[in-house]
Design goal:
Belongs to the immunoglobulin superfamily. MyBP family. By secondary structure, the chain is mainly beta. The chain has eight helices and 36 strands.
Length: 522
């Protein structure tokens, strides 16, 4: 019988790796389960009091109705007390691991990421009313942020009368434009409007106007919005095209009327094209006769707005008239003329004067923008013969032709004799006179020294140097010089013997003069 118990003792070894789950449920029943291995039948009464909690696992024995002798467990505690609960407990921990497999079943919906590919587009943005008329309403919006992989097929506009819940499509087929006009509406109705975006994956959430739209004509007084550059005189050249667009506003559609001098326009020359918001004035080739003031009238049921457009068509002026040579003197010529008969429908800005000499035959401009009808031309070359011509100038440019002088101007050579200016002779004779005398000097032995004085006189006086009243002649120790009336005497390496009274004497035919000084050599 002991050997039969040995295999029974091996069964409680299975729950050893799983005691945490079992101990939590059985409390103190775990320790006696480990003791049956060395236990003998004598120790069986000890676990009996502790096996009383063993019926607790009986709560886990709903699958054990097949064991009718469940009441025999207390009668035979010595035979196999532990195997019965262990056999029922061992599957309990085994049921724990199957629970995790239930968790991996959670990612089973992973194929759902494919659904975003089939999501419908988002709703259109910025739905707004652009214009309302008596029987229509114009809407604008922006494309949705998300259009899906398949892209948009178009939009559907739906309307519903205020107070009703029946939405009807205003367009038969989807369209891709972000602007739509709903036609054939009844004046005075209030309608709700919404727009859906369509794609292959379905329709978006509709974008709906917050407030209903009242269908009625919005009256607006007529007003002409004249461009800034047309508020002044509009100037064009002959032959140029005149093309002007003048915007206006007003509801309902205003009547546009053009007149010139209270008379209808000549439609053979002037083309007028009107739209709902502007009028276009066009002339293919402008002529002088097209100049003038044009009146534009925009009228709605008695209310009107007027504007005046001043057009001026210009061309180059005619040449000046009656150009004459008034006078020729020395190197100068005086010209005079009259203004042109035709100024080209523009104010004369000035005149251009040109000259041409007979030798070269070329024209050179001597005056530009001369504002007067006369001028004087100077710095002409003696011996040349000159012709002159004058152009008139306006905003369009110079006149095509010029007025030319009928005569020529010859610059003659004038005979002149040179007479030198008579200068009175002046007596420059003067006796010698010292303007700067000699000064006493003290020098050191062996160092050269100079004596200076200044003299004037005419004729130039003769200079004589003396030492102690003795004339100094050709002595290499002394060097005498005179330049520009400055007299100098150099004494080279003097010695005490060279000291004394030095005298400078100037002599000419008118007299003589002298100065002296004392020299000390130490």
């Amino acid at each position: 019988p002991k050997q039969s118990r040995d295999p029974g003792e091996e069964t409680p070894k299975h729950p050893l790796p799983q005691p945490p789950g079992f101990a939590a449920m059985t409390g103190k029943t775990a320790p006696p389960a480990t003791e049956p291995a060395p236990a003998t039948p004598k120790k069986e009464p000890v676990p009996t009091p502790k096996e009383e909690p063993a019926p607790a696992p009986a709560a886990e024995e709903p699958p054990a109705p097949e064991h009718p002798p469940a009441t025999e467990q207390p009668t035979a505690p010595a035979d196999k007390p532990a195997p019965v609960p262990t056999a029922e407990v061992t599957p309990a921990p085994e049921e724990g691991p199957p629970a995790p497999p239930a968790e991996p079943q959670a990612p089973a919906p992973e194929p759902k990421p494919e659904k975003p590919k089939a999501e419908p587009p988002s709703s259109p943005l910025s739905l707004a009313v652009e214009e309302v008329s008596e029987n229509s309403v114009t809407l604008t919006w922006k494309a949705p942020e998300q259009t899906g992989h398949s892209g948009l097929d178009g939009y559907v506009v739906e309307i519903c009368k205020d107070g009703s819940t029946d939405w009807t499509a205003a367009n038969k087929e989807p369209f891709l434009s972000t602007r739509y006009t709903i036609q054939d509406l009844s004046s005075g109705d209030k309608i709700h409007v919404r727009v859906k975006a369509l794609s292959a994956s379905g329709a978006s959430v509709p974008a709906t106007l917050e407030q209903p739209v009242l269908i009625r004509e919005i009256l607006q007084l007529p007003r002409i919005r004249m461009p800034r550059h047309l508020r002044q005189t509009y100037v064009r050249h002959v032959g140029d095209a005149v093309n002007m667009m003048i915007p206006f506003q007003g509801k309902p559609q205003p009547e546009v009327i053009w007149t010139k001098g209270n008379q209808p326009l000549d439609t053979s020359r002037i083309n007028i094209r009107n739209t709902q918001k502007d009028t276009i004035f066009y002339i293919r080739e402008a002529q002088r006769g097209d100049s003038g003031k044009y009146e534009l009238t925009v009228r709605i049921n008695g209310a009107e707005d007027k504007a005046t457009l001043d057009i001026r068509v210009i061309e180059p002026p005619a040449p000046p008239q009656n150009l004459k040579l008034v006078d020729v003197w020395g190197f100068n010529v005086a010209l005079e003329w009259s203004p042109p008969v035709d100024n080209g429908n523009s104010e004369i800005k000035g005149y251009v004067v040109q000259k041409s000499d007979k030798k070269s035959g070329k024209w050179f401009t001597v005056l530009e923008r001369c504002t007067r009808t006369s001028c004087t031309i100077s710095d002409l070359i003696i011996g040349n013969t000159y012709s002159f011509r004058v152009f008139a100038e306006n905003a369009c440019g110079l006149s095509e032709k010029a007025a030319v002088t009928s005569g020529v101007a010859h610059i003659k050579k004038t005979k002149t004799a040179y007479q030198p200016e008579k200068i009175p002779q002046r007596d420059m004779m003067e006796p010698p006179k010292f303007t700067q005398p000699l000064t006493d000097r003290t020098t050191t032995r062996g160092y050269s020294t100079h004596l200076f004085c200044c003299v004037r006189g005419f004729p130039q006086p003769k200079i004589i140097w003396m030492k102690n009243q003795m004339e100094i002649r050709e002595d290499p120790k002394y060097i005498a010089m005179i330049e520009q009336g400055v007299c100098s005497l150099e004494i080279r390496k003097p010695s005490p013997f060279d000291g004394g009274i030095y005298t400078c004497k100037a002599v000419n035919p008118l007299g003589e003069a002298s100065v002296d000084c004392k020299l000390d050599v130490k």
